[in-house]
Amino acid sequence: MERYDDIVVGAGHNGLTAAAYLARAGRSVLVLEAADRLGGASISARPFPGVDANLSRYSYLVSLLPRQVMTDLDLDLRLIRRRYSSFTPVPADPARSVLVDGEDEAATAASLRAVTGDDADHEGWRRFGERMSRIAERVFATVLEPLRSYDEITALVGDDDVWRGVTREPLGQLIERVAADDTVRGIIATDALIGTFADLDDPSLRQNICFLYHLIGGGTGDWDVPVGGMGAVSGALARAAAAAGAEIRPATRVTAIDPDGTVEWEGGRARGDVVHAACAPAVTNHLLGAAGAAPIPTEEAPEGAQLKVNMVLRRLPRLRDAGADPAAAFAGTFHVNEGYGQLRRAHADAAAGRIPAVVPCEIYCHSLSDPSILSPALAASGAHTLTLFGLHMPARLFRADPESARAAALTATLASLDSVLAEPLSDLLLRDEHGRPCLEVSTPLDLEAAIGLPGGNIFHRSLQWPWAEEAAEVGGWGVETPHPRVLVAGAGARRGGGVSGIPGHNAAARVLRD
Questions:
Q1: Pick from 305, 308, 277, 307: which is nearest to 293 by CA?
Q2: pLDDT for 135-167, tens place per residue?
Q3: Rounded to whole angstroms, how far apart are CA atoms 414 and 404?
């Protein structure tokens, strides 16, 4: 039997992060990946035949990847900070809009004033942003350290009404204190619902946890564009791991994990001192079960809640707001029908088992920030990529009849987008070499089938607070399991979710420091 210090199951960005840290420390490391390519959800692809556009197929932006990880591993990776935070057509009147300019506070204030009629909401927004910036800086500074208790984090942050509102009461109550305008409230609320199916008043506070993660990234909450697409992130990590001596085997599907450190796959087996499960906890439990071992604690049925649509357009669309520049509007996060009331109504529709009548969604244009993902000829033609993320699309809506539900969801989503455009999106879709529109849609069930996300949950499971919720967890790394030789090294760890490398770092730290 082959022997290693560490065996990493899954070569997504977290598994590669763990492998790079461990191998650089001089340990023998084997990485096993079921797919024939590395990167998991952090990959780039050319999904449209004859169209030279390298899309970030699943994950699309970077927020939670600490600079320390990039520095520690000498990653050959460049991230671009977006000037514009968001563009939001007013739901009741898409001929008006709010543009949040990260480099011009006066312009942002004027944009808000034109929609709300006064400066009250801008002032509330500004004060809220200042407080959240302090929270982000202080909480994010702890994510690569052993877990602290909630009381310790609270003392670090400073206990004020914003902190209590984010961590101890349904988020809707805080949002309603910050702003009065429906559009402004919606802009704030969307960060609580990306990949999370919850009402803003959900007593479980799932929406609050999602909100906190979206706002603490990098200590600033900024969402950056990786030059070369998401494949550049996993590619840099794979090179770092391989250069340090890790042995990486793609197209190797693990079939069992024994708590004694033995890992089996189709055609082989090996034993490690530690197994780093960089796959979803539900997948880890399946592999433990195949070896007759007890499962690790996790959700019984994780569920994703998003529709992902990738597109290539001949050019950017004209907007209902004739005074808005599409190049600025699409350069940040483009909010579509994400008013506060609309988010609540869409959740109610989906909770009742219906595709939302008006789909809240948001759009990202990678190619505006990074033209390198297009061939020179395609970029010169004025073409652009768009990634659309539809909210409140839980997996349950697609289980009975996946094909017809996918079609209905796509139709409703594109209709929602068309409502804020001055021309139909369908007229702008580039065609591939077979004459088909460059449009790729993935439901939660498609994500489950393609990249092993249980229920299509982009976080592997519901997000958890980034601190110890039990006294026994304090001082741990959020990766431990009841099996001492098995660690959670993927997004399902505490302080997981998103493209971060944090769980991979922390699994390696658990071995190297303890």
A1: 277
A2: 999 999 999 999 999 999 999 998 788 999 999
A3: 15
**195 conformational bin, left if phi > 0, alpha if psi -120 to 50, beta if neither:** left
pLDDT of residue 220: 85
Give CA–CA dist 68/165, Å, rounded.
30
Neighbours of 341 (CB within 10 A): 13
Integer Cα distance of 409 and 481 in angstroms: 38
Cα separation, 125 vs 480, whole angstroms: 39
Question: How far is CA 299 from each of CA 189, 296, 342, rounded to the nearest angstrom?
Answer: 25, 10, 29
C-alpha torsion sign, points 136, 137, 140, 146 = negative
How far is residue 190's CA from residue 237's CA, in Å, rounded to a whole number? 30
State which amino acid sits at residue 492.
G
Looking at residue 371, the DSSP 8-state letter turns out to be: G
> Which 3 state secondary structure label does DSSP give 269?
strand
3-class DSSP state of 279 = coil
349 neighbors 357 (Cβ within 8 angstroms): yes
Contacts of 106 (CB under 8 A, 6+ apart): none
* pLDDT (tens digit per residue) in 209-223: 999 999 998 888 888
DSSP symbol at 239: H
E strand or H helix at 267? none
Q: Residue 352: which residues within 8 A CB-CB, separation 6 or more? A: none
Q: What is the pTM of this model?
A: 0.97
User: Which parts of the chain register pLDDT below 50?
Assistant: none
Burial class (CB in 10 A: 0-12, 13-18, 19+), 375: middle
Summarize pLDDT for 486-497 with one digit per residue, the tens: 999 999 999 999
| CA dist 138 → 168, 188, 215, 242, 464 (Å) | 18, 20, 12, 33, 18
Task: Give the per-residue pLDDT at 430.
Answer: 98
The full length of the chain comes to: 514
- Give the CA distances from residue 278 to residues 32, 52, 486, in Å, rounded to whole numbers and listed in that order: 10, 31, 11
